Structures are given as C-alpha cells and as structure tokens.
Amino acid sequence: MAWIEAHGHGGDMLTAASVFGLEGRAFLDFSANINPLGPPPRVMELLRDQLSAIVHYPDPSQRLLKEKLAEKLHISSEHLVIGNGAAECMALILLALQPKKVGIVNPCFSEYAQLATAFGAQVVSCEGRWERHYQPDLPDLFQLLSEADLVFIGHPNNPTGVVYTKEELTRIAEQAAKTNTYLVVDEAFLDFLPRSEQVTLLPNLNMYRHVILVRSMTKFYAIPGLRLGYAIAHPELIGQMKGKQVTWSVNQLALVAGEACLEEHGYEEKTIGLVREQREYLKQQLEELGLFVFPGQANFLLVRLQNGRTAADVQWDMGRRGVLIRSCAMYPGLTVDDFRIAVRTKEENDQLLHVLKEIL
Fold first, then answer.
1. In this structure, are residues 311 and 16 in contact, taking their beta carbons and an 8 Å threshold?
2. Domains recognised in the chain with CATH numbers
3. Cβ atoms of residues 359 and 312 within 8 Å
4. Which of 79, 148, 240, 267 has the most CB atoms around it within 10 Å of its CB?
5. Is the peptide bond between 58 and the residue preceding it cis, with omega within 30 degrees of 0?
6. Rounded CA separation 148/128 (Å)
7. What is the pLDDT of residues 334-352, one digit of tens each?
8. For residues 107 and 304, is the Cβ–Cβ distance under 8 A?
C-alpha cells in the first residue's frame, strides 16, 4: 500500500493523484489544516490586480506588511521577522542560534526534528502522557529544557490540538530562563481559537528575551501556496534571524495577500465561529461511530480507531473514494490506529462522515 505522506506532510495532491488515480482537484482534502472558507475574497481580487507587479522585486524588508502586522499585534516592527511560511521562520531560528541540542515533545509537528537534523543539531525529546492527552508533565518538560539548547513546543500542538494554560506557559518560560534555553512556541493554529481562549506570552514577551513565538498566515487565511508566516521575539534575536535570511525570500504576491488579510475582520470572526461549531459537530458524530476523539482545540481533530482496522487501511479506502485524511502512524508516540482530520464546512464534513460510515 502506497504511503501518501511520502514527503512528511498532508495536503500532497500530486502524490494522492498518483496513488489513487484521480485528479488533484477531485479530492476532498481533510489531510491539511487549512481554513475551509478559502482565502478572503478581497485577497483574491488584489492578487489578480497585482499580477503585473511580478516584474518588480518584492520589498526585501517587507516594510508595509510588517507595519500593518505590528499595529495589529500592538508591538514594534523591530520585534518581527516575516518569513516564507512559518517553516522558514523556524529554519532562521536554528540558523541564527546554532543550537547543538534541540528538544521536542512527542508527538509533534515533524518539521521541528527534520529542520534540527538538517542543520546539524542533535534531537532530544520527552514524551507526552496519555493521561494528559499527549501533553507532557511539566517536570519532564523542565528536564528537557535542562538537556537542550533550544526547545520547540506547539500551542495548540499539531497533531493533538492540546494547549497550555497561561500559568503553564509562564512557568515553562521562567524555567527556560533558568536553564538558559531558547523556547520556541509554535502558535500556527492559535488564530482558530475563540479570542478569549487565545492564550499567549505575547503581552509579556519583553520579560522573556529567550522566547520566540512563531505564527502562520498560511493556514488561517488559506494561502498555503503563497507561503507566509512570521516570528515575534526580542529585537536582538530578530536581528540574528534576519541576518540569516535569503534576500527576497517572501515574494511580492505573498506580501500583497498578507497586507490584505490583515484588513479582514468579519472573515476572522466567521472563521472562528465556523470552526468552533463544526469541530463540536464532527467530534459528536465521530464518537457516535465508535471512534475516540482526543480533546483539543484548533481546526483539526486527532482520532483513534477502536475496531481493529488501522488508520492506513481507512485512509486507503477513503482516498479511493476521493476523501483524504492524515494517517498519524509516522508521529513518534502515536499508533497505527490514529488519524487526523481537518474541520471543514458542514457540507464537506457530512461528505466525510458519509464515506467513513460506509467504510466502517
């Protein structure tokens, strides 16, 4: 059976088309966690209007986008670096800080370990506990901080969706300061949470010169093909990261899209409301099918089969019917019974549930 995560991520339409014999556009994709509303309409209009701008170089300092983003976040632009997706920001962190040991908490986004290894660091880890839905006990995380030069944590974590409390984040940041460890908090999915639940160290970041927040605009604004993300940190760290960045790594159309996205407001609230409503709906329906759904937040669900079939089996049967899900067997700490699905619109979610019922 072919492995459609051959390149380590979901949303690989080319591989799926090759494996299942369908055109990429024919798939209903639940394997990538992208806003189901698609890009804001205004963004699409501006991209069409700005196509002629590709004959010019983009601003290498991303000044207009940086100014708008700083205003939205209530920080100085000196605290920001804009990247070609959140992944580039993570790469810049590793290139700038040159950690010899990088800590991760399994299960987690595979790019943490892949980037660390690619840049010559040794990867050390601690394991999330089943009793805490794969979040680590703080003593275990504190031990990891003492062993590593830099530690990645996901908040919400991918693929589990679990989040830390403000008290936990504060304690982790304070412990990282004691061990002289850089702490990278991946907040790529934080925007999908209701405003009142978007817990972050951002308001107190001046207290933590060793903390870096990484965020994505790719997922929330549904522009993964353009690639856009950013990191927030002390200006000294930002300067080190920018010193490692390739000139013009963020293209002109991505900058135009990012500026337009930051002017959206109704779209943001509509997205948060849709995800919250449909996440609960999907969870309830999946549990009625006899599946275990892990508690968590954000725009995806981690699901465990309990009927003897593996996630790869179900993924194969669903893929042949034009629906893609993400097998989680490759995540250290998870099992062959685990898969992840994105939260999409009611109509799309019902299609997924219909196919899943047929298969199970």
1. no
2. 13-30+266-359 (3.90.1150.10), 42-261 (3.40.640.10)
3. no
4. 148
5. no
6. 17
7. 999 999 999 999 999 999 9
8. no
- Largest Cα–Cα distance of the chain, in whole Å? 57
pTM for this predicted structure:
0.94
Please report where in the chains the tokens 């100085």 appear, as a residue. Answer: 76
Q: Which helix (H) or strand (E) holds 353?
A: helix 346-359
pLDDT of residue 2: 46
**Where does 133-251 have alpha helices with state H?**
138-147, 166-178, 235-242
Q: Give the whole-angstrom CA distance, residue 211 versus residue 236.
A: 12
User: Of 199, 238, 224, whose CA–CA distance to 77 is shortest?
Assistant: 238
DSSP readout, 86-142? HHHHHHHHHHHH--SEEEEEES--THHHHHHHHTTPEEEEEE-BGGGTTBPPHHHHH
Residues whose CB falls within 8 Å of the CB of residue 346, separated by 6 or more in sequence, listed in order: 278, 281
Taking only the tens place, the pLDDT of each residue in 46-70 is 999 999 989 999 999 999 999 999 9
Amino acid identity, residue 146? Answer: S
**Beta-sheet strand order (sheet of 300-304):** 292-293, 300-304, 338-342, 326-327
Nearest Cα neighbor of 139 from 177, 107, 173, 175 is 175
For 277, other C-beta atoms within 10 Å of its C-beta total 12
302 near 296, Cβ under 8 Å?
Answer: yes
pLDDT tens-digit profile of 143-197? 999 999 999 999 999 999 999 999 999 999 999 999 999 999 999 999 999 999 9
**CB-based burial of residue 206 (10 Å sphere; 0-12 exposed, 13-18 middle, 19+ buried)?**
exposed
Beta carbons of 160 and 191 less than 8 angstroms apart: no
The span from the first CA to the last CA of the chain, in angstroms, equals 19
Structure token pair of residue 292 = 């275990």
